[in-house]
Amino acid sequence: MIAADLGADGPLPKRLRTLEAWGEEMAARPKAVGEGRVRKTGRPVFLAEEARGETFCGMFLGLGAVAEGVRFWEEHLKRFGLPETVTSPLVIGRILVSLLLDGETGRGMAPRVAWSLAQDMAGKDRLVFGFVSTLHRLLLGTRPYWGEGSGALHVTLVERKARRFWRNLPRLARGRGGSRLTPENGYLSRNTDRVELGFQGPFIVDGELHRLEEDRTPLMVRALEGVEWLVP
To answer: Domain 46-63+109-229 maps to which CATH number in 3.40.605.10, 2.40.30.10, 1.10.10.10, 2.60.200.40?
Structure first.
């Protein structure tokens, strides 16, 4: 997901060979650094800190049904070594089926979360989805954020009681908020540089599964300065 968003999707061995050739050329001729082989792109990252000092750096943080999808991947798909183009639809399908079978918009996968944004917006409810990301697009090219603000963090929160969840799901995936995806209807999306999330349970950072215990909340997430990436 991250590689695709940065423009480095495709077969990993080929990308690594390109990067290796670029490095060799740069070492031999520093003033001609392999033009056309590698480009540089800037992208911010975030730092997430929990109450007892453990920190996580990344570009995507997810909780609720997102964490359930990653758990499914780790337990059932990871060992096969399948490419993301195959596993992504399977993971998304698993999330949607789980939500459908779980009754009222995923009550079994919706942790109770208290949130506070830099714009002095705050709330507390059970969330089906929670995203904090610096990526432009997520799995399968989805872009589930549409909010205002100039911050580097895209934050999207979808409450369990969100109105017309299934009907609005395509709009959510494309980031078309309009009059339907509003905080009053259970959909919140903002761009900010800081967000506080208080919850207990699993969450993911860049595909790795973690867990917050009740006495270790809240999780403070803030944007860092942009990082320069080499994209073969």
So the answer is: 2.60.200.40
Each domain of the chain, given as residue ranges in start order, spans 46-63+109-229
Amino acid at 159: E
DSSP for 158-182, written as a single string: EETT-TTHHHHHHHHHHT--TTTS-
Q: CA 131 to CA 182: how far, in whole Å?
A: 16
Please provide the size of the chain in residues. Answer: 232
Contacts of 104 (CB under 8 A, 6+ apart): 160
Question: Which helix (H) or strand (E) element contains residue 26?
Answer: helix 12-28
pTM of the full structure: 0.86
Question: Distance between CA atoms of 25 and 6, rounded to whole angstroms?
Answer: 23
Distance from C-alpha of 28 to C-alpha of 128, rounded to nearest angstrom: 53
- The single residue listed with the structure tokens 């001609």 is 32
7 three-class SS? coil
Determine contact, residues 197/219, Cβ cutoff 8 Å. yes
Cα-to-chain-centroid distance, residue 72: 17
Q: What is the pLDDT of residue 12?
A: 75
Buried b / exposed e over 15-42, threshold 16 CB at 10 Å, is beebbeebeebeeeeeeeebeebbeeee
* Interval 171-215: pLDDT, tens: 999 999 889 999 999 999 999 999 999 988 889 999 899 988 765
What Å distances lie between residue 14 and 10, 127, 160, CA to CA? 8, 40, 43
